[in-house]
Design a protein that fits this description.
Blueprint lengths: L1 E6 L6 E6 L2 E5 L5 H10 L9 E3 L5 H4 L2 H8 L3 E3 L1 H9 L8 E3 L5 E4 L2 E7 L8 E6 L4 E5 L7 H7 L4 E5 L4 H6 L4 H8 L7 H10 L7 E5 L8 H12 L7 E2 L6 E5 L6
Helix pairs in contact: 8-9
Length: 260
């Protein structure tokens, strides 16, 4: 099982999950041309995709969903709330929409997917844990806070892609309007570095082979600040923690069975 990112941040998102018989793109916030270019950088063509899975209906996650799905006749999985947001955002006709509830488990081409609701200012947003016979990969971005349910679901993952959107000091000292600062830092906004670290301290991280800081703000965060907060929680070297970049994304990370 392996995963990668074609880009992560407020200007566009896309996460690749490959396992069992599936190759899924979670969200697509890029133009068709840009998505093709970013997939090619990871050795993929859009024709290799099994489908699209959408976390929620904000533009940086859905702007490229419609055009990609139509160009390659891809099925799209989303909640009813996200479907309504996509319709309001005018992403165009989707001919094959597979609906699920935000606390539902389902499978795509043998890859098991456990969805769970998150506190975010969208309609029925979801995040996911992906699993095959050997590994579990957790994805948690675009949430303003944690819940006991989130922490139970993410415990025991072999890899975790965890939002570290902002450093609180940088956010508050920056030039965002007060209303936007309040929205970003609210319990329905985005995780700051310290809160992300606190989540790690509450879950079972004993199996983690990969930890990735996701959805960093280019204005209100720095990779070294995210790494510092997560490394304190993990009691590990900062360089062990990976960071998904807005432009460069994240190269393929593979999960391996431990010998012995």
């Amino acid at each position: 099982m392996r995963f990668a990112s074609i880009g992560s941040g407020s200007s566009g998102n896309g996460t690749l999950i490959k396992g069992a018989g599936a190759c899924l793109l979670v969200d697509c916030g890029f133009s068709l041309k840009e998505t093709r270019k970013r997939l090619a950088r990871l050795g993929l063509d859009a024709e290799d995709l099994s489908g699209l899975l959408v976390t929620h209906g904000h533009r940086d996650h859905i702007s490229g969903v419609g055009v990609l799905a139509r160009a390659y006749d891809l099925p799209v999985w989303m909640t009813v709330g996200t479907q309504k947001e996509c319709q309001q955002a005018n992403i165009g006709r989707l001919s094959d929409v597979q609906l699920f509830y935000s606390n539902e488990a389902f499978a795509i081409d043998g890859l098991e997917i456990e969805s769970f609701p998150v506190p975010h200012d969208a309609r029925e947003p979801s995040q996911f844990v992906f699993s095959d016979d050997s590994f579990r990969v957790g994805l948690l971005t675009d949430t303003g806070s944690s819940t006991k349910h989130i922490e139970r679901v993410l415990s025991g993952c072999d890899a975790l892609l965890l939002e570290c959107n902002h450093d609180m000091d940088l956010l508050m000292a920056g030039d965002y309007p007060l209303a936007l600062k309040q929205r970003v830092s609210s319990q329905y906004g985005h995780l700051d570095n310290i809160t992300a670290g606190q989540i790690l301290s509450k879950i079972d991280c004993s199996k983690l082979q990969h930890l990735v800081a996701m959805h960093l703000s280019q204005k209100n965060n720095r990779p070294e600040l995210a790494r510092d907060a997560l490394s304190v929680a993990m009691e590990c070297e900062q360089q062990w923690i990976k960071v998904a970049d807005q432009d460069a994304g994240l190269a393929w990370c593979e999960l391996k069975l431990k010998k012995g």
